[in-house]
Amino acid sequence: MSGCEARDAKKLVRSPSGLRMVPEHRSARSPFGLDEPPWVPDKECPRCMQCDTKFDFITRKHHCRRCGKCFCDKCCSKKVPLPRMCFVDPVRQCAECALVSQKETEFYDKQLKVLMNGATFFVTLGTSDKSELMVCRLSNNQRYLVLDGDSHYEIEILQISTVQILTEGFTPGGGNSRAIGMILQYKVPGSEELKQMKFTASEDFSCNKKLSASWLAAMHKATKLLYESRDQ
């Protein structure tokens, strides 16, 4: 096994919430991941935290695997995939958390693959007036943004500070807009200095424009998840 494969190795662990497939090394975890929340202790939860029903021998209490709060079966009956916490199977969640997790499933099922497949952009470094045509993609372990052209760059996702999606076609009346590029600010490990890259979609082929727009939309969603993970 190579060093890279060893760092990315995973193990199956059992927690009170269920089975999880997690990286053996914490440094190898996905930047979009979330930690399991602490459960509200049973003794602090005599009633359902949603409908206020009192718990007894008939009305049992259940913990939501996403928020850790305590609910009755009626308010916490849905079992929904929760890939951000690496659960192997769908897990019990309250109605509010289940809705959030269901929306995230689209990112993991579709948009994450779009990011890994990559798209082509003209990339401009800093204030340079020169740009380079590069294929941009998310690494398979989700930890790096990889840029390949005549040059090669790898930007650690955790070092990204801001992502601004550039659009065209927007009107004050709410007309449709299309993503045409993005401005990325990031830090180089060991330095506090912010660096900037500008990505502009290639106009060569209509199919490439569509692919680039899909990639940028997926990157926009990924950025939201990244910010949420940091704020945890």
UniProtKB/TrEMBL annotation:
Q: Which SMART domains match?
A: FYVE
**Keyword entries, A-Z:** Metal-binding, Zinc, Zinc-finger
Q: Which GO terms describe its molecular function?
A: zinc ion binding
Keyword RNA-binding on entry: no
Check the record and name the InterPro entries matching this protein.
Answer: FYVE-type_Zinc_Finger (IPR052113), ZFYVE21_C (IPR032031), ZFYVE21_C_sf (IPR038632), Znf_FYVE (IPR000306), Znf_FYVE-rel (IPR017455), Znf_FYVE_PHD (IPR011011), Znf_RING/FYVE/PHD (IPR013083)
Top-level division of the source organism's lineage:
Eukaryota
- Whether Glycoprotein counts among this entry's keywords is no
Check the record and name the Pfam families matching this protein. Answer: FYVE (PF01363), ZFYVE21_C (PF16696)
Q: Which residues form the FYVE-type domain?
A: 42-97
Designated name of the protein: ZFY21 protein
Organismal lineage? Eukaryota, Metazoa, Chordata, Craniata, Vertebrata
